[in-house]
Design a protein that fits this description.
Order of helices and strands: HHEE
Distance between the termini: 28 Å
Number of strands: 2
Radius of gyration: 19 Å
Structural class: alpha+beta
Largest sheet: 2 strands, antiparallel
Helix content: 55-70%
Strand order of the largest sheet: 1-2
Strand content: 5-15%
């Protein structure tokens, strides 16, 4: 398992922002730029995977006749 595979969404986003910042700054040698780009692609993939998992877990609250929460049900369309 790579360090990226163990990252939370927030950690991966922060790392991706750092990579983008370094690449945008433009003073990184070509070899390092390629490494950063590859890392950025893996970080983006990790974020996408975690977002997909979160979407699959989204639930809506079902309400009873009196409007009080009665439980949860899977979100529609997922």
């Amino acid at each position: 398992m790579s360090d990226i595979d163990a990252m939370s969404f927030e950690e991966a986003m922060k790392a991706l922002e750092e990579v983008v910042g370094q690449l945008e700054h433009g003073d990184v040698p070509l070899d390092r730029s390629i490494e950063l780009y590859e890392r950025g692609a893996k970080l983006k993939e990790r974020c996408t995977k975690l977002l997909k998992q979160a979407e699959e877990r989204v639930e809506k609250i079902t309400l009873g006749a009196d409007g009080s929460p009665q439980g949860t049900a899977p979100a529609e369309g997922l």
